[in-house]
Each structure stands twice: as structure tokens, then as C-alpha cells.
Amino acid sequence: MQKTKRDELVRKALDTFYRNGFHATGMDMIAKETGVSKTSIYKHFRTKEDLILAVLRLRDENFRNWLFRRIDELSDTPREKLLAIFDALEEWFAMREFRGCMFIKASAEYQEHDDPIHAQSTEHKRLLADYFSKLCKVAGATEPEQLAQQILVLKEGAIVMAVLGRGLEAARDAKNTARVLIDAHMPATD
Amino acid sequence: MQKTKRDELVRKALDTFYRNGFHATGMDMIAKETGVSKTSIYKHFRTKEDLILAVLRLRDENFRNWLFRRIDELSDTPREKLLAIFDALEEWFAMREFRGCMFIKASAEYQEHDDPIHAQSTEHKRLLADYFSKLCKVAGATEPEQLAQQILVLKEGAIVMAVLGRGLEAARDAKNTARVLIDAHMPATD
DNA sequence: AAAATAGTTAACCGATCGGTCAATCTCTTA
DNA sequence: TAAGAGATTGACCGATCGGTTAACTATTTT
User: Fold this and answer.
1) What is the pLDDT of residue B7?
2) How many CB pairs under 8 A join A and B?
3) pTM of the model
4) Does the beta carbon of A85 lie under 8 angstroms from any beta carbon of chain B?
5) Is residue A176 less than 8 Å (CB to CB) from chain B?
């Protein structure tokens, strides 16, 4: 029961921070939006930073689970899975509540590399790189690590451009690039 | 004299906002760091938002001037210029004061599309796209607009990954992708 | 030299920041 | 049903937020 309450608090806090930003969201607003009093919040989390870290942990879990599942549902072969990344992205960009990558935004507000919030954002990208790397290896890429990093660059660039003017087109731009890139990394036909 | 004073204020405010973020930087800190009293600041700018908009205008001018000049200095042929974008990026990433793209950070803190700060960030990216587009046309790309957008996606992705763990490698990842991409868009040898 | 103008300053405004606390409320256990 | 334990609450803390005010200083104009 306690676990559930805490989880519910984190889940709602995620929505508020995602919509409104980190510094711009006060703990009073979190209390109001979650329906949990400040005193109760501070019983679960020592500081605002601790709450944000919990929020980011949940976001990492949710986002990666969603992306990996969606990739599997949208494609069959390893090569198709690499391209399906960008179909999933396009779906994300089309969602009403889309507001960009929460980790890019977190690292923009907490800039020091040794800040726990910044470090956790870096870790999220590393986990994505790991997953892409595995996909590239299975697909038989000649240099899987490099290809994975290049695809990650495409993904991050697409998110930024989706926020800053391009919308859904950003995902298609990135997918077209990925196609060329993947072909260049494949020894022969797939 | 008045113009100069105001410009100096904006120049110093830029450094502070870039280093410290927007919401996290109070007007008292701006006053202290610039050496200009709050009252004087508010004589030049009606609100903090107005000051930030002036800062972003200066940043846009500085950054594009620097990038375009550096591209010209680093390369000769149109095709080389498209690749030199990423050599310039790598130089930027290597600078001690590098803290990512100020406009990505601004749009992360001011998320509403109709917020003037967000809109100005979008405009900055549009101006970059225009320039890339011209380069692509001169280079004789088959679909210059599309290639320009793809290169812009690569640039933004590289910046994000430079901040979030990859450092200088991000520029090289993006450049390698750009090379493949450009070749695919060129009708024949250059 | 006197008056007007422009620029600067510290002190202050109400609101909100992250965080705390004594009091109350709810529920278990005997 | 009374005692005790946990959870919840609104009021409150000093500090800082964006922004304003009145007094002062220095310069220009006459």
C-alpha cells in the first residue's frame, strides 16, 4: 500500500515536471497536482532533487519499455527493427502530450556533468546505445558500435527538430538517413 | 554610449544565462555578474523575458556568424563545406565553455510553442536550415531541402550527444553519417 | 552657477521558493 | 474502548523570486 502510494506520487509528479519543467515547478504545485501534501511528499523524498531522480528513473523505465515493445511490434527482421525505431518516434511525436525528451530537458536545467540529475540523463542515453548496439550486432553490421551511436545521434536530432519546428517530418528525415546509413553498414543484402 | 552599455549588459547576461540556465538565474545574479544595478537593467528591458530575448538574438547572431565563417575557413568546395559543418562542431565541443545549444536549452525551459522564447529558438533553427539548404543547392544535391533538413538533424543530434556522454566523438559520428548521406544525394562525382 | 536631465543605488514590495513542525486525524492492537 | 503508532494537514520558516520606488549623484544645458 505504501509502495503504491509512493509510486502514484512519482507517476503524477512525472506528468507535472514533464509538462512544466523542473525549476519552473515548485513543490507546492507538485503537492496540488498530486493531491499529496508537501509534508507527506517530504516523508518519501528528502529533497526535490531526490523526487526528480525518482521521476527520471520511472521515465527511463517507461520510455525504454515502450520503445522496445513498439519496435518489436512494428517489425520482424533485425534490419527492419533498426528502421522501426523511427516509426516509433513518429508515433511519439504525434501524441498530444509530446513535449520532447525529458532527459535532454533535465540536462539542460542541471548542466554540471557531476550533478546526479545530469548523470542519470547520460545513463539513459547509454542504455539506449546499448540496446541499439545489440540490434546492430544481430543485424550483422560491419561496425555495430559505430552504427549504434550514429543511429542514436539521428534519434536525438529528430527529437530536437520535432520540438523546434519540424514536427512529424523530423522522424521521417531521420528514418531516410538511417536507411542510407544501415545499407552502408551491411556487408550484403539482408 | 548608451547602445554600447546596453550591448555590454546583454553580452555579459548571455554568459550567465548560458552557464547557469534561465529559471535558475535570478535578476539579482544578473545584476551582480554584469555590474549593472537591477534598476538600470529594468530601464533597458521591461521584463526578464525581454532581456532573454535580446540575449537570444545576440546568441543567434554570434553563433551563425562563427559557424559560417569557420565553415568557409575549413573548406573549399561546396561538398567539403557540408562536411566542414561537423569539423566546426567538433571545435565547438572542445571549447572549455561549451555547454550545449542555448536554443535547445531555452526551448526546454520555455516549452509552449507560442512562447516568444520558444518561437525565437525555432527561428534560429530555421535560419540554419536555410543556410544548409543553400549549401546543398550549390553542391548540386538532388533534393537539397531534404538533405539540408537531414544534416540539421545530424547537427542537433551531435550537440545532444556531445552534452550527454559522447563529447567530441559525437561530431565524428555525425560527420561519418553526413558523408554517406551526401554521397547518396549527389548525382555523380564532385 | 542654477536648473534640468540622466543614471545609479539600496531598500523595499508581495509572491513564491524549498523545506519544517506542531497539531490533528485515522487506524491498529490490546 | 482506550492507548499508541502512522499518516496527513495547514501554517509557518528564512531566502529568493521578478519588479518598483524614492533618494541621490553626476552631467548637461542655460
Assistant:
1) 86
2) 137
3) 0.93
4) no
5) yes
Query: Which of A53-62, A126-135, A158-167, B1-10 is least confident?
Result: B1-10
| Nucleotides in chain D with any atom closer than 7 Å to protein CB | 7-11, 16-22
Task: Write the DSSP assignment of B37-76 as a string of letters.
Answer: -HHHHHHH-SSHHHHHHHHHHHHHHHHHHHHHHHHHHH-S
B90-117 pLDDT per residue, tens: 999 999 999 999 999 999 999 999 999 9
Residue B1, min C-alpha distance to chain A (Å): 35
Compute the residue count for chain A: 190
* Residue A1, nucleotide of least CA–C1' distance: D7
Q: pLDDT digits over A156-177, tens only?
A: 999 999 999 999 999 999 999 9
Contact B153 A149 (CB under 8 A): no
In this prediction, the residues of chain B whose per-residue pLDDT falls under 70 are 1-3, 188-190
Instruction: Give the chain B residue nearest A184 (alpha carbons).
Output: B180
